[in-house]
Specification:
The complex is a heterodimer.
Chain A lengths: L17 E2 L17 H22 L5 E2 L11 E11 L6 H7 L20 E6 L2 E6 L15 E8 L4 E8 L17 E5 L11 H11 L6 H8 L1 E7 L5 H12 L14 H14 L4 E4 L29 E3 L4 E5 L2 E6 L2 H7 L9 H14 L29 E7 L3 E7 L2 E9 L1 H4 L1 E6 L4 E6 L6
Helix pairs in contact in A: 7-8
Chain B lengths: L12 E2 L16 H11 L21 E13 L11 E10 L4 E7 L4 E5 L9 H13 L12 E11 L10 E8 L2 H13 L14 E2 L5 H9 L6 E4 L16 E6 L4 E3 L12 E9 L14 E10 L7 E7 L9 E5 L2 H15 L3 E4 L2 H15 L18 E7 L6 E6 L5 E4 H8 L7 H9 L8 H9 L2 H25 L1 H12 L3 H6 L3 H12 L4 E2 L5 H10 L7 E2 L4 E3 L3 E6 L2 H8 L7 E2 L12 E3 L5 E3 L7 H22 L3 H26 L8 H25 L4 E6 L2 E5 L6 H16 L8 E14 L2 E7 L7 E5 L10 H16 L3 H16 L10 E4 L12 H12 L10 E6 L12 E2 L1 H7 L5 H21 L59 H30 L15 H23 L7
Parallel strand pairs in B: 4-10, 6-20, 12-16, 14-15, 16-19
Antiparallel strand pairs in B: 1-17, 2-3, 2-9, 3-4, 5-7, 5-8, 6-7, 9-11, 12-13, 13-14, 17-18, 21-27, 22-29, 23-28, 23-29, 24-26, 25-26, 27-28, 29-30, 30-31, 32-33, 33-34
Classes of the chains: A alpha/beta, B alpha+beta.
């Protein structure tokens, strides 16, 4: 790396046109007296017409549509619509924990990498009842099905009271507009899982990343390239999850901590604030919280509180947003999340969940299910919405990005004659990788920061 | 130690009302009744039993049925018999291997009994005596209308009395009197006992009767060698079809009893037939605040789950509903417009499906009485025909079963000929000791699933909703019908009871309706009669009344040397102690020698028990009881051997049930002899047995201590002793010494008494007699389990906290061997308790409101609370029969505890402070002191005093009391100082502002924790309920989640409000 240069040229960072519409994931007042049933009810209400429409286009042979499960008659060949529920013994169950150890207040549940076992049962439910689905005749694997997805199912009720499935139909990828074309290359940068405060964290790598963004790294070509990066997304787990453990321990073990004591190790937050301040002074930054960050646990996670990041929060260029989050940059709709939804969905299949291709498939399926996190609230904690399910996708993004994945991966899918870019952003603290996306072409590229100590 | 070997196992008495009183059954004309039934019959035709077998003709073959129940009726003129005389017709209800139901009407069997012959009797006088008996009997009004002779036969029978051995063992002459009808036996016996008859020239004033009190059905079964649930074969050329069916069973045949071929349950005949089992549940629409009463409240749904043994899929899953009900996948829903139709349809269902066994949960004391009472309120004359006989009304009467083994239970009994009622609640109460017998907690215990519990006030709401809410209810009702079936399967209740019926030789139904006694009666008769030993009819008053009070000495307990033993303690057990004593010393009614006759015996011919009674040696005469026990125990050995070899899971369950049944029966024999109000009590026998047992325990103690120097017997009880060989032995060494000791000492006892070494306790905590805990090892690699006796883990008048702490402490002491850890755990629990960190569900105690509040004499917590709840809202207050959960809260000084009982939900909602000190002092302290005293001695009070008890947290109530006088003002979330009105939007005061981040994060920590709990608890309830689109309604307060999920809602809401206060600031201006 050679930073010596003779001439001084002033470079200006390209600016992007950033629009944030009304954010449906921002909670204004919270109420917990309701239960989780309503969110499924709303989901079904929102997606039933969509999936029915899709099914009528798919199965044009005049097959009977039963409007509710209760009107199902044994033997008739028909289509039914409902929410999938997968009964899986390996799901973490608080009741099982209680029976093992009744004295425990509310145990932290061990989560298995996969919930799949031989005894799994797939059920379809609507407001009027539920029925067991039997996939003996359907070649489609049950692997892709997630609890909480709304589907149309073609088949018939058997004498044993199951519904024998011939075919399935999903709502399908929602419509999207072809974006206006851009004249110049302009990039946005995604990074996730910086993991400040982790003991194994290599701070040199963060420093390099900062140097790169602020244009202190490389040669003129690099500077020029860097000036084309118009926006930075930090997709969750800014703090290390090791910090999260102390956070959890604190609430469990409160009797040893009296209120006068400092409750948390402020160090990672202070360095995070410094880090974000440096970034925000040179590039517009959007920060999503992740699982390990100090905000609420239920999806949608709310923006980090300004008091936690007092210095960076003063910058206009710094946005603290929800997880998930959606905005529009230069006419491209960008949907970002910190990845918990993908992790949880992967537990419903037997696929190798380290494979990034499988994760991209899960992301693609979610678009086709028109839902961002179908497994919430069953195995993914979410807020008990009452009169809407904000995770239902009304329109398709041009770019769909999930943070904190094991490895970098991308896929371009074609939806309604328009490309949709899927991106898995790897965890920075373990891979040192960030991802750049050319907004003009929707072409991504990965950059890796490595320090060779030799 | 084997609990089944406890002294005086039971004495059980059945109220007479339970005995078969078929003579009184009203016979109605079946005409009208069959007409109404057919109205709904078509609905259920698909559930009918298999097609007909070939009954007649060359290829018909013999008809074989598995006998499930036997009863009888009195026929004024039995035309099957040549003389058309009055007779009892026995009815065998059975199932063929192909699944057809068959009623076999068995004719010609007549009851008999015996009297001792008058002295110097001349056989030539038999006809004269028969005539005078006949004449005397005709004079009794109840016998005078008998068709044909009353006395059918009079013969001389040579035998002996079962009771007492008479030196030189002479045969005695008896008169065997065979009479027309069962009820005549007792009447004639009474006449003879009173001497109210003249047999001149014989001048005996009274005649002792023998075997007059034997139940007619048992008499029949013994005579034909028929066992309970056994196979009965009827040769094809011997039976006849009746002209007219009298029952709803598929086939009916008539046969003479001498043509029955009864197969003993061995080998091939261990098989079973496809038995139909119907599990059902009803729902009623109660009025607010009142438990449903048949006088007012409708039956709205009846769910049925019918299975057939040997089939994996149920035959029927149906629910009958009042009012429309949306369809349920996998079940058949039938809706009716009126309750009367609903009830009638259910009778049709019963008739069409023809179940052999009815089961459910609490059907005997709730569902069935409710249905019958409801039908009578509705004047539904066609309803109460639930049995298998046409035109026989189902009647209900109260029974009372007292038994020291089962306790006293009042319940209902029903005339439901041919259908056996197996109420799973009764089975569980009999066979398992549990903290709670609610269907919820039982399902959780045995099936590992929680069941949704819909409170009866919600049931009415659901019923008055629409077809979907009724469907919801129906699903719930179906589940309640399904669970008893699952329990029956899981616990193998039916298989085990059937095997018990086979071993004991009595009908299946008797096992449920009667105590242990009847089993021994049957065994005794079956063994004694072939040896011509007759069982005397003892009057409860004559033989034993004076001795009843002077109870004999029970089993020995060697005074425990209390302590916490960290070395292995070997346990030496006498296998089947009392049965083996009876066999070893030939103890029996028939070998007992009356004290005044001992002098006629040679000394080598008898054994004297430590209690002073004498029994002849087996060489002189072998006791009947010994023979019974030998048979039972050798049969058990065979069953166990077969069990080892068997691979088929069904056969395995049968064999296992069989070996258990044999063991239970063997142990019941001893109890029978000691039962002071039983059929044949004999204090000499039971006193001898316990005396032998005591001596053996003492002998064992002194033998061990003399043969193994430095060993100490630290405790002994009934049939086992605990030995500490040396302080420094390994487990392996202790085990081998234990084995040696068992072998050596066994030799000093007569066969088959055997001292066995089976297990070591290591470590072992001996608290006091009958209270101990230890890790049980039978092999050196790993321990088998933690074994606790008499320690507070299951008692239900404790809160769960006690059970949890006790079991955790024992685990720390015994498994982890960490005394300090156990002490720390106790201290932490106490500290948590005092700081209000213990989950409220662990502090809840619940008691049933078993009678009206006014009927309680003493002030009981749950009754006082009930009155309070009723004042608050009569509509939602619990009602009779409900369990009322409560916690104890702080109150005024010296306010009695019962007044401080409060509804846990109310406590949560109003932040009422719990009286944690009360829990500490009255609940936790005693059990923990008991455990720790042997370990840390006098120091034990340090557990309850000191640093960890200083920090006390009391919640501030949100209503009532002093709160009425306070003004709510906004306080700083950091230091709780009030915030001036002008800045009331601020979350923090100006001094705390600097620490905003840390205060924020502290609150955030709580929010995150509550969010995690909220999500876990409420999703769990959705899974358990079996629906994600509908709200959870479950009110199962036994479930560990119930209070937690309510509490977390409140906690999360409160903390979220705090968090929101931070967010009121305007967002940054980007």
């Amino acid at each position: 790396m050679n930073a010596s240069h003779s001439t001084t040229t002033v470079m200006y960072r390209q600016t992007v046109d950033y629009e944030e519409e009304h954010n449906p994931f921002l909670l204004h007042s919270r109420n917990y007296s309701q239960q989780y049933s309503q969110i499924y009810f709303c989901r079904l209400a929102a997606l039933r017409p969509v999936v029915e429409n899709a099914a009528r286009n798919k199965w044009t042979d005049g097959i009977l549509f039963r409007d509710r499960l209760l009107h199902l008659q044994q033997g008739d060949n028909c289509v039914i619509i409902g929410v999938i529920y997968k009964e899986m013994d390996l799901k973490p169950s608080i009741l099982k924990e209680y029976s093992k150890n009744p004295a425990e207040p509310v145990p932290i549940l061990p989560v298995k990498p996969s919930f799949v076992s031989d005894s799994d049962v797939v059920i379809l439910e609507d407001e009027t009842g539920r029925i067991r689905l039997n996939f003996d005749r359907c070649c489609l694997g049950v692997n892709i099905l997630l609890t909480g997805t709304v589907v149309a199912v073609k088949g018939q009720e058997t004498s044993s009271g199951d519904f024998s499935v011939d075919e399935l139909c999903f709502p399908g990828i929602p419509p999207l507009k072809v974006p206006r074309s851009l004249d110049n290359d302009i990039f946005i940068l995604f990074v996730s899982g910086i993991g400040l405060g982790a003991p194994w964290n290599v701070s040199m790598r963060e420093a390099m990343f900062l140097d790169f963004i602020t244009g202190k790294l490389g040669n003129e070509e690099d500077y020029h390239f860097c000036s084309q990066i118009g926006h930075l997304f930090v997709l969750g787990n800014l703090l290390s999850s090791a910090g999260d453990e102390t956070l959890a321990n604190k609430s469990n073990d409160q009797q040893t901590v009296n209120s006068a004591q400092q409750l948390f190790n402020a160090e990672p937050l202070i360095s995070a604030d410094r880090f974000l301040t440096t970034l925000s002074s040179t590039i517009p930054v959007t920060l999503l919280p992740g699982e390990a960050d100090p905000t609420n646990l239920l999806l949608p996670q709310q923006p980090l509180h300004h008091s936690l990041l007092p210095s960076s929060s003063k910058y206009n260029s710094f946005r603290r947003v929800t997880n998930p989050y959606q905005c529009c940059i230069n006419g491209r709709k960008i949907l970002v999340c910190s990845g918990q939804n993908i992790d949880d969905a992967c537990r419903y299949s037997t696929w190798d969940w380290n494979s990034v291709e499988n994760r991209l498939t899960v992301m693609e399926n979610m678009l086709s299910f028109r839902h961002l996190c179908p497994t919430a609230p069953d195995t993914l904690p979410c807020y008990p919405y009452y009169d809407e399910d904000p995770f239902v996708l009304k329109e398709c993004p041009h770019v769909y990005v999930a943070g904190n994945q094991h490895a970098y991966g991308t896929r371009l899918i074609n939806a309604n004659d328009c490309g949709v870019r899927l991106l898995c952003i790897p965890d920075f603290s373990t891979t040192g990788q960030v991802v750049l996306l050319n907004l003009r072409t929707l072409t991504p590229q990965v950059m890796e920061f490595m320090i060779d100590l030799n | 130690m084997d609990s089944s070997a406890s002294p005086i196992d039971d004495d059980s008495i059945i109220q007479e009302s339970l005995l078969y009183d078929s003579e009184k059954q009203e016979i109605l004309e079946p005409v009208e009744y069959t007409q109404t039934r057919s109205k709904f019959q078509h609905l259920f035709s698909s559930y009918a039993r298999a097609g007909s077998p070939l009954l007649f003709g060359e290829d018909a073959g013999n008809l074989r049925i598995l006998q499930l129940d036997v009863d009888y009726e009195i026929v004024q003129k039995d035309t099957f018999l040549e003389d058309s005389s009055s007779a009892a017709v026995l009815r065998i209800y059975g199932v063929t291997e192909g699944g057809n139901s068959v009623l076999a009407r068995v004719h010609g069997f007549r009851p008999f009994f015996f009297i001792i012959c008058p002295s110097q009797f001349d056989p030539a006088d038999l006809p004269a005596i028969k005539e005078s008996l006949e004449k005397r009997a005709r004079a009794v009004s109840s016998m005078k209308n008998c068709q044909g002779p009353i006395i059918h036969d009079l013969e001389i029978f040579e035998g002996r009395s079962l009771l007492y051995f008479v030196p030189s063992d002479p045969l005695i002459r008896f008169l065997k009197i065979t009479v027309a009808l069962p009820s005549y036996v007792r009447q004639l016996a009474q006449i003879l006992e009173r001497g109210d008859i003249d047999f001149s020239p014989y001048e005996e004033s009274r005649y002792s009767t023998f075997e007059a009190s034997v139940d007619f059905i048992l008499r029949f079964m013994i005579e034909t060698n028929m066992y309970g649930c056994s196979w009965v074969e009827m040769p094809s050329n011997r039976y006849h079809l009746p002209e007219k069916q009298t029952s709803h069973m598929q086939f009916e045949i008539d046969i003479h009893y001498t043509h029955l071929v009864c197969h003993a349950p061995h080998g091939e005949w261990l098989k079973t037939a496809p038995i139909r089992i119907l599990s059902f549940d009803i729902e009623c629409a109660g009025r607010p605040g009142v438990f449903p009463e048949p006088e007012h409240d409708q039956v709205i749904q009846i769910a049925n789950y019918m299975t057939e043994t040997g089939k994996s899929e149920p035959i029927a899953r149906t629910v009958l509903t009042l009012g429309s009900c949306a369809p349920i996948a996998g079940a058949k829903v039938l809706s009716f417009d009126s309750e009367a139709e609903l009830l009638e349809a259910w009778v049709s269902f019963l008739c069409a499906t023809d179940p052999d066994i009815l089961t459910g949960y609490n059907i005997v004391n709730f569902d069935l009485p409710y249905l019958l009472n409801r039908a009578s309120v509705l004047h539904l004359s066609s309803f109460p025909f639930l049995g298998r006989l046409m035109g026989v009304m189902t009647k209900m009467h109260d029974t009372r079963l007292s038994s020291s083994a089962f306790g006293t239970h009042e319940s209902k009994a029903f005339t439901m000929n041919g259908r056996i009622i197996v109420d799973m609640l009764q089975i569980l109460v009999r066979d398992y000791k549990l903290r709670s017998y609610s269907l919820n907690s039982v399902s959780f215990e045995f099936l590992g699933e929680q069941k949704e519990d819909v409170h009866h006030s919600i049931i009415t709401e659901l019923f008055h909703g629409n077809e979907n809410t009724r469907r919801r209810l129906a699903v719930y009702c179906l589940k309640d019908a399904y669970l008893p079936h699952r329990l029956m399967e899981k616990l193998m209740s039916l298989t085990n009871y059937m095997e018990l019926a086979r071993v004991a030789g009595i009908p299946l139904a008797w096992l449920l309706s009667r105590g242990h006694m009847i089993k021994v009666v049957s065994l005794l008769h079956r063994k004694a009669f072939p040896e011509s030993l007759l069982i005397p009819d003892l009057k409860n008053t004559s033989h034993n009344s004076s001795e009843e009070a002077e109870s004999y000495e029970g089993a020995t307990v060697i005074e425990p040397k209390r302590g916490f033993y960290k070395m292995p303690i070997a346990t030496l057990d006498f296998a089947s102690l009392y049965p083996s004593i009876m066999m070893a010393h030939n103890i029996c009614y028939s070998t007992l020698v009356r004290k005044d006759r001992v002098k006629y015996l040679k000394p080598e011919d008898y054994i004297k028990s430590p209690s002073g009674d004498c029994y002849v040696r087996p060489s002189v005469k072998k006791g009947v009881l010994s023979k019974i026990l030998e048979d039972l125990l050798s049969a058990r050995k065979v069953a166990k051997r077969e069990l080892e070899q068997a691979t088929d899971p069904f056969l395995r369950s049968v064999l296992n049930g069989r070996q258990l049944a044999l063991k239970i029966s063997a142990n019941a024999v001893y109890g029978f002899t000691g039962a002071s109000r039983g059929k044949l009590p004999c204090t000499e026998i039971s006193a001898s047995i316990t005396a032998f047992g005591r001596r053996m325990i003492e002998t064992t103690k002194s033998l061990v201590e003399s043969k193994f120097p430095s060993s100490v017997v630290i405790y002994g009880d009934t049939d086992s002793v605990m030995v500490k060989f040396r302080d420094d032995l390994t487990l392996e060494e202790s085990m081998s010494l234990g084995q040696q000791a068992a072998d050596i000492i066994s030799q000093s006892f007569p066969k088959p008494i055997k001292l066995e070494f089976e297990k070591c306790y290591y470590p072992y905590l001996l608290i006091q007699k009958k209270r101990y805990a230890g890790l049980l090892w039978t092999k050196t690699e790993t321990y088998d389990k933690m074994d606790c006796k008499g320690i507070e883990t299951v008692r239900r008048d404790n809160c769960k906290l006690v059970a949890n702490v006790v079991s955790k402490v024992l685990e720390k002491l015994l498994v982890e061997r960490d005394v300090q850890g156990a002490i720390d755990f106790v201290k932490k629990t106490i500290s948590d308790l005092l700081q209000n960190k213990v989950d409220i569900s662990l502090l809840v105690i619940s008691k049933e409101l078993s009678k009206a509040a006014a009927d309680y004499d003493a002030n009981q917590a749950h009754v006082t609370l009930y009155k309070k709840l009723y004042q608050r809202d009569p509509g939602s207050a619990p009602s009779l029969g409900d369990r009322i959960p409560y916690v104890t809260i702080k109150g005024r000084k010296d306010q009695p505890a019962h007044e401080r009982a409060e509804d846990p939900i109310y406590v949560l909602e109003h932040n009422l402070p719990l009286d944690t000190e009360y829990y500490l002092k009255n609940m936790l302290r005693k059990p923990l002191e008991r455990i720790f005293e042997p370990i840390i001695g006098k120091n034990v009070s340090s557990l309850f005093e000191g640093e960890h008890t200083r920090s006390i947290t009391v919640t501030t109530p949100s209503t009532g009391g002093i709160m009425r006088f306070t003004k709510v003002s906004v306080t700083c979330l950091g230091c709780r100082t009030p915030i001036p009105q002008t800045e009331s939007k601020e979350p923090l005061c100006k001094y705390c502002k600097a620490n905003e981040a840390s205060i924020y994060e502290k609150i955030l920590c709580n929010v995150r924790e509550y969010e995690r709990q909220y999500a876990m608890l409420w999703t769990q309830c959705q899974r358990c309920m079996g629906s994600i689109c509908q709200d959870v309604l479950c009110s199962n307060s036994d479930c560990p989640i119930f209070y937690r999920r309510r509490k977390v809602q409140k906690d999360l809401e409160d903390t979220s409000k705090q968090l929101e206060r931070f967010e009121i600031l305007p967002p940054p201006s980007w």
